[in-house]
């Protein structure tokens, strides 16, 4: 840095610095320092972040040598040697730090900006201490580095968005980021997300950053850390009308990070105040944790919730073109391995029940199971009934539209009001029947409350007589097992592990599920 131009923070070019270093060459005692300075100069060109702070440090290193050079005649040979030894020790420390920083990839360096800044501040202090110990007359401005360092730091911070956009545009740098540890990836995504939040949707940089986050997600398999999403920042609704839904929700089409088609599920029975909306967002984070543990094999990926786009919260998940499980079996009646389908559902339930504190799905039926592009079942909306009950204060059995699920509910739920792993087993058996037949349980009864009354009396669905249903795998043996699953006594029902063992014939080795 030119000493007279600190106020405007004007830095010399690398070529100009190299020319300055060459001035010291005729003085033999300064030769070691010249070599170190050239090493510092090369490293400065390779560090990808904290640019202004690094350039200021580079110039102060040069100025320290310049001060000693200017004082060389007065020092004499022996004192000059001592002075240069002390100087070289400090310069070497700076070079070592710079070399370490220069070996970091651009994303790693970006994540370590604060650490690098702290190291630079420490190095600047050592330069000042070195000069004070030598008792040499400093050039103007050498000791007033702190104010200019703060300016450099602020300017570096102000260029964060530009640097992020630059990284987001380069696929090789995103691939480099995807090789980091998952926690590092999340930290970088969090920084990108913060910048994304500050840019308007019409800003071209917004699209670039959103695409960068999406590509990093695809390369790494790691979802952005925040699940509290914002409309027109992370996701935007497409179209004026919902494209599907049911008694409890509307399904809208949306776009995730400007690149991926997603489903936005608007929960019509969940209109609650802002305070409870925040609680709702915290509660549904369990979906993300379960998905990450499952790696998306049996659990629908969950991107987050949007609470600033209409009166109802929107649940955001990848669009599944094959639709729900019940839609899938109706469209592909003859091409489905039904045993494998219900086995996959059972494996998804095992993911939930195997947590230290078992997670109860609570609303298991064909409508709440999505089918992936590979034709595999993915569980969604698990625990949603309990979450809504906690947030609204209304028992889930009394919420609007819940009667639509009566056909799948275990009868004891309406007495205890509690969802259990045993009630999930009951619902699983009803779901299996639904998928084998393509019809809801008790399809001959129109009114859901009537179904509930009959089940409380101990009545159960009649055994299908259609030969096609039997050909799909619902034979006498499986029917008898389903009867165990919907036993009136919850304690008499099998565990999910026993369900999986029952459904696992030799052609499906258990370790494949």
TrEMBL record:
Residues 193-508 form the Protein kinase domain. GO terms for biological process: cell surface receptor signaling pathway. Keywords: Coiled coil, Kinase, Transferase. The keyword Transcription does not apply. It comes from the Eukaryota. The keyword Coiled coil applies. InterPro entries: Adaptor_Cbl_N_dom_sf, Kinase-like_dom_sf, MLKL-like_MCAfunc, Prot_kinase_dom, Ser-Thr/Tyr_kinase_cat_dom, Ser/Thr_kinase_AS, Ser/Thr_Kinases-Pseudokinases. Residues 164-191 form a coiled coil. GO terms for molecular function: ATP binding; protein serine/threonine kinase activity. Pfam families: PK_Tyr_Ser-Thr. This is Kinase-like protein.
């Amino acid at each position: 840095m030119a000493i007279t131009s600190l106020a405007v923070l004007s830095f010399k070019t690398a070529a100009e610095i190299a020319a300055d270093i060459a001035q010291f060459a005729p003085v033999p005692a300064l030769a070691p320092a010249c070599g170190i300075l050239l090493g510092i100069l090369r490293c400065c060109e390779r560090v990808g972040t904290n640019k202004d702070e690094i350039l200021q440090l580079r110039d102060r290193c040069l100025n320290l040598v310049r001060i000693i050079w200017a004082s060389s005649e007065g020092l004499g040979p022996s004192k000059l040697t001592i002075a240069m030894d002390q100087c070289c020790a400090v310069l070497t420390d700076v070079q070592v730090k710079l070399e370490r920083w220069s070996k970091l990839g651009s994303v790693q360096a970006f994540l370590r900006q604060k650490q690098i800044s702290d190291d630079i501040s420490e190095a600047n202090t050592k330069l000042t201490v070195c000069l004070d110990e030598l008792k040499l007359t400093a050039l103007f401005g050498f000791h007033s580095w702190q104010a200019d360092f703060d300016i450099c730091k602020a300017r570096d911070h102000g260029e964060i968005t530009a640097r992020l956009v630059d990284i987001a545009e380069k696929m090789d740098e995103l691939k480099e980021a995807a090789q980091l540890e998952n926690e590092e990836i999340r930290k970088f995504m969090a920084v990108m997300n913060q910048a994304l939040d500050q840019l308007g949707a019409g800003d071209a940089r917004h699209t670039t950053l959103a695409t960068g986050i999406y590509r990093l997600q695809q390369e790494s398999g790691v979802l952005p850390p925040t699940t509290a999403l914002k409309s027109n920042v992370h996701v935007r609704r497409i179209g004026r009308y919902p494209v599907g839904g049911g008694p409890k929700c509307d399904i809208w089409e949306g776009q995730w990070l400007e690149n991926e088609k997603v489903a936005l599920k608007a929960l019509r029975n969940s209109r609650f105040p802002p305070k409870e909306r925040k609680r709702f967002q915290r509660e549904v984070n369990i979906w993300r944790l379960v998905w990450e543990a499952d790696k998306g094999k049996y659990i629908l990926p969950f991107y987050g919730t949007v609470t600033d786009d209409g009166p109802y919260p929107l649940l955001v998940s990848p669009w599944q073109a094959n639709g729900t499980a019940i839609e899938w079996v109706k469209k592909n009646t003859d091409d489905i391995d039904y045993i494998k389908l219900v086995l996959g559902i059972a494996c998804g339930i095992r993911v939930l029940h195997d947590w230290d504190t078992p997670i109860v799905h609570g609303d298991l039926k064909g409508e709440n199971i999505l089918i992936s592009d590979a034709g595999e079942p993915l569980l969604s909306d698990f625990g949603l009934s309990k979450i809504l009950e906690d947030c609204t204060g209304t028992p889930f059995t009394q919420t609007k539209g819940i009667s639509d699920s009566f056909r799948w509910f275990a009868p004891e739920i309406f007495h205890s009001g509690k969802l259990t792993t045993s009630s999930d087993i009951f619902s699983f058996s009803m779901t299996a029947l639904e998928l084998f037949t393509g019809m809801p349980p008790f399809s001959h009864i129109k009114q859901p409350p009537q179904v509930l009354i009959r089940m409380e009396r101990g009545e159960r669905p009649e055994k299908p007589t259609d030969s096609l249903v039997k050909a799909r795998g619902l034979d006498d043996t499986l029917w008898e097992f389903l009867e165990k699953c919907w036993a009136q006594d919850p304690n008499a029902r099998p565990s999910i592990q026993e369900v999986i063992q029952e459904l696992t014939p030799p052609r499906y080795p258990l370790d494949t599920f």
